Amino acid sequence: MKCYFNGCNNAAAAGSFKCLFHIHRSRCLIEGCRSQVYARNLCVRHGGKRQCAFEGCKLNSRVGLYCTKHSPSHILRLCSLEGCDNQAHLRGLCFRHGGGRVCKVEGCETFARNRGLCARHTPKAEKKTMTKTTIKPSCPPLDLDTTTTAAPKLDETMLDWLLSGFFAEMGEIDLIKCEPSPPMVCVQEVSTWQL
Predict the structure, then answer these.
(1) Of 147, 167, 158, whose CA–CA distance to 187 is shortest?
(2) CA atoms of 39 and 57, how far apart (whole Å)
(3) Average pLDDT of 57-72?
(4) Is residue 69 in some structural domain?
(5) Nearest Cα to 112, choosing from 123, 126, 101, 125?
(6) Which residues belong to any copy of the WRKY19-like zinc finger domain (predicted)?
(7) For residues 187 and 71, which has the higher predicted lDDT (pLDDT)?
(8) Is the pLDDT of residue 54 over 60?
């Protein structure tokens, strides 16, 4: 059984119609509504959040009794430049007119976005990159006849060496009680992580 609330696909907890995330949340009192309570036992849609007190406005109140469009200017400070209706932030000005915080890096005039720094000066998280290193053989390569289609035969020493390398990577080297010597041709790829 799925959780009772709208949009929740989690399984309902044992003995409940709600999932573990919603188990302590109440249902809206309106019959048939599958939303959680916001305030006064009602969801936002059914009046849990007050509507704007401005006549005819159906938006939810955000600043006192009004929505952001209809709030009195003494509650919602507007930009101090004449003709600008944007909300003021710093020094009585909107962002467009210089009311935002400036990046704290000396000489940078860009607005700060994160921890007092602009996007350009915010340190980036270092990415992990995988580099591939190929170790070249120290002995000459095998000279295989290219006119035949048969695969070259592996001798037992080379096969033992290959298998012991496989089991060593799998962490099961204890099962093999041998120390093989490397074959004549050895090409190995090594992957290393760097920050």
Answers:
(1) 158
(2) 20
(3) 79
(4) no
(5) 101
(6) 100-121
(7) 71
(8) yes
Running DSSP on this structure, what letter comes out for residue 45? I
Cβ–Cβ < 8 Å for 61, 49:
yes
Neighbouring-strand partners of residue 51: 60
The answer as to whether 10 is a domain residue is yes
pLDDT digits (tens, 9 = 90+) for 6-38: 889 999 998 888 998 988 889 999 999 999 998
Are the C-beta atoms of 132 and 191 separated by less than 8 Å?
yes
pTM exceeding the 0.70 threshold for the entire prediction: no
**Which range of residues forms the domain containing residue 183?**
129-140+153-194
**Helix, strand, or coil (residue 159):** helix
Q: Cβ(46)–Cβ(28) under 8 Å?
A: yes
79 CB-contact burial (10 Å; exposed 0-12 / middle 13-18 / buried 19+): buried
pLDDT > 90 in the chain, percent: 7
Give the number of domains in the chain: 2
Torsion of CA 109, 112, 117, 123, to 10 degrees: -110
Strand, coil or helix: 99 = coil
Residues 6 or more apart whose Cβ sits within 8 Å of residue 107: none
Alpha carbon distance 100, 176 (integer Å)? 68
Mean pLDDT across the stretch 85-100? 79
Provide the token pair at 154.
């592996």
- Cβ–Cβ under 8 Å, residues 172 and 193: no
In a domain, residue 21? The reply is yes
In degrees rounded to 5, what are phi and psi of residue 78?
A: -105, 160
Is residue 102 in a domain? no
